[in-house]
């Protein structure tokens, strides 16, 4: 009876949503922009943790509603908006307006694709752990308000977490064992985020308010730990992993990424780039230079604080190099870039840490790179690399990499383009920057730093093979781990984390080398068009001033050449 009632409510919401979308039939570029703005406002309100993470703090006291009625209502709303966008006649529009139409369409395609094909709410237990961890983390990472107000928001969210967890148990009709194991690991690593990091906000609470937060926190942790136990008991009955298949994979490449390659061509690109970088490693006078070794470092940090400072101390050196070589323009609005320790809850799928750039709504222009807990004896590739020379990874995550590029993207005035977040451009630019800085002389020739750049490109190339073969169903998870170790040159800890990340986030791992290849391809075409007027720094500025758009679109903008877009959509 309860399911029938929920279904009737969901159907009612779906009909209301459908009527609202259909009430006005968009026809003009202005209609498109209004439709997009309405969609972003709807999305921000319906995904409050996403909003907090993006720097919009209107709904900091809420978590996402995962009830069946809300879930189905959200899915139908996006489908209906996509239907309206697809139905627009754009053949006579200007190039810029047609680009906006394609971008907004691909944003909606991305949402409906994963709803239809992956169905994370029913297959991935990480959804509900991540809602809880990000619900707290998004309130902690920046001082956007007083500690007291953020703590009160945290209390409100903590109270909702047991309900989110129970809805997760109800929704998970076809959980995947690999995702469940990652969720279990995260759930059992979440305590310090709640008991240590969160409690730094409580100093201005009244005793009653603090007691209320602690009570809500403890109940949330009991619920999350119980969720891990509940999942563990059900692991044997879960499907090990469910690939999306080649047809779906190709649909994603074409309609979301607007990429002029299919899965087979992409896998071939990965093999070609992997072969190239393994060969370049072998040409080093000492090929072991590509495998980071802290023993070669003159200064091994004594503790976590020294490790963080060693990272940050090299940033000024890299910025000076960029300015001296006139390689990229640093805008005046650029904020601080800091290095921080990675919370334990995020380690299972982010063994190397992750970048937290300024959000699209952030008033604070600063950004952070979260690195793993320091251990000088660690076998982790990223720890070893950071001890020997943090600059390659620092350049990837900071300047000229993610922090610079995403800061510029946030300042676009066109809202559809500002909202677009194409990972192939984002990660491709950061990886391109690693080799660009090496080739232009930042590191000594045949040094461990140059070797690290080659190894970083090598395992990013290996990522393509893992992602394509894992999600088209050709490889098992263990085959993916072994490929990262044997072909990518990673230790087992890093390889398992990489494979877990690839499985949990389909296509994210292809973005690095695919984007770098597209940028190099575009660079050659741009230089040919510019002739004697060519300047590398101007190419970089022209490339990243357009935001995080598909590179086939940027090629159309810079060169007035739509052939890559046409090939993707053909």
Description:
This protein has 570 residues and is mainly alpha-helical. The chain has two domains: 2-237, no CATH class; 247-517, no CATH class. It has helices spanning 2-22, 29-46, 48-53, 68-86, 95-117, 120-123, 126-140, 147-171, 177-187, 191-197, 207-234, 246-255, 263-282, 304-313, 315-324, 381-388, 391-397, 402-409, 415-419, 423-439, 448-471, 477-486, 492-504, 511-530, 536-544, 551-559, 563-569, and strands spanning 337-341, 354-356, 367-371. It has a three-stranded mixed sheet with strand order 1-3-2. Residues 1-10 and 17-22 have low confidence and may be disordered.
Fill in the keyword field for this structure.
570 residues; mainly alpha; 2 domains; three-stranded mixed beta sheet; 27 helices; globular
Give a quick summary of the entry.
With 570 residues, the protein is mainly α. It has helices at residues 2-22, 29-46, 48-53, 68-86, 95-117, 120-123, 126-140, 147-171, 177-187, 191-197, 207-234, 246-255, 263-282, 304-313, 315-324, 381-388, 391-397, 402-409, 415-419, 423-439, 448-471, 477-486, 492-504, 511-530, 536-544, 551-559, 563-569, and strands spanning 337-341, 354-356, 367-371.
């Amino acid at each position: 009876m309860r399911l029938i009632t929920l279904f009737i409510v969901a159907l009612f919401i779906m009909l209301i949503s459908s009527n609202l979308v259909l009430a006005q039939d968009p026809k003009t570029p202005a209609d498109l922009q209004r439709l997009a703005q309405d969609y972003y406002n709807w999305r921000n309100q319906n995904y409050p943790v996403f909003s907090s993470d993006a720097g919009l703090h209107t709904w900091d006291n809420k978590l996402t509603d995962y009830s069946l009625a809300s879930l189905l209502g959200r899915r139908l709303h996006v489908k209906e908006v996509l239907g309206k966008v697809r139905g627009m006649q754009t053949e006579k529009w200007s190039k810029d307006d047609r680009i906006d139409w394609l971008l907004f369409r691909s944003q909606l395609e991305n949402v409906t694709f994963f709803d239809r094909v992956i169905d994370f709410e029913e297959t991935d237990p990480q959804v509900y752990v991540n809602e809880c961890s990000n619900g707290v983390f998004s309130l902690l990472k920046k001082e956007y308000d007083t500690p007291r107000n953020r703590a009160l928001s945290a209390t409100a969210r903590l109270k909702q977490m047991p309900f989110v967890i129970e809805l997760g148990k109800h929704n998970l009709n076809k959980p995947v064992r690999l995702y469940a194991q990652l969720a279990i690991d995260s759930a059992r690593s979440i305590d310090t985020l709640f008991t240590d990091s969160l409690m730094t906000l409580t100093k201005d609470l009244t005793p009653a308010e603090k007691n209320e937060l602690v009570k809500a926190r403890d109940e949330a942790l009991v619920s999350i730990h119980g969720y891990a136990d509940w999942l563990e008991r059900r692991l044997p009955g879960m499907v090990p992993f469910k690939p999306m298949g080649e047809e779906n994979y190709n649909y994603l490449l074409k309609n979301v990424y607007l990429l002029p390659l299919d899965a087979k061509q992409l896998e071939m690109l990965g093999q070609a780039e992997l072969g190239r970088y393994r060969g370049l490693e072998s040409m080093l006078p000492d090929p072991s230079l590509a495998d980071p070794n802290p023993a070669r470092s003159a200064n091994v940090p004594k503790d976590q604080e020294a490790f963080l400072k060693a990272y940050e101390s090299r940033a000024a050196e890299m910025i000076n190099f960029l300015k001296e070589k006139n390689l990229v323009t640093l805008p005046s609005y650029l904020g601080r870039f800091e290095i921080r320790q990675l919370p334990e809850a995020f380690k299972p799928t982010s063994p190397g840490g992750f970048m937290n750039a300024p959000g699209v709504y952030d008033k604070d222009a600063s950004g952070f790179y979260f690195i793993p807990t320091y251990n000088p004896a660690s076998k982790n590739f990223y720890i070893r690399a950071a001890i020997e020379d943090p600059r390659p990874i620092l350049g990837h995550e900071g300047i000229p990499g993610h922090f610079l590029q995403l800061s510029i993207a946030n300042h676009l005035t066109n809202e559809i383009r500002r909202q677009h977040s194409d990972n192939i451009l984002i990660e491709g630019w950061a990886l391109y920057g690693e080799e660009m800085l090496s080739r232009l002389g930042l590191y000594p020739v045949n040094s461990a730093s140059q070797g690290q750049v080659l190894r970083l490109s090598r395992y990013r190339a290996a990522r393509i093979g893992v992602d394509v073969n894992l999600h088209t169903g050709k490889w098992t998870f263990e085959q993916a781990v072994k490929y990262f170790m044997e072909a990518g040159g990673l230790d087992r800890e890093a390889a398992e984390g990489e494979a877990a990340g690839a499985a949990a986030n389909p296509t994210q791992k292809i973005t690095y080398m695919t984007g770098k290849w597209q940028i190099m391809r575009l660079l050659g075409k741009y230089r040919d068009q510019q002739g004697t007027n060519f300047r590398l720094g101007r190419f970089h500025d022209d490339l990243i001033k357009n935001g995080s758009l598909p590179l086939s679109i940027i090629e159309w903008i810079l060169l007035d050449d739509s052939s890559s877009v046409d090939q993707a959509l053909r």
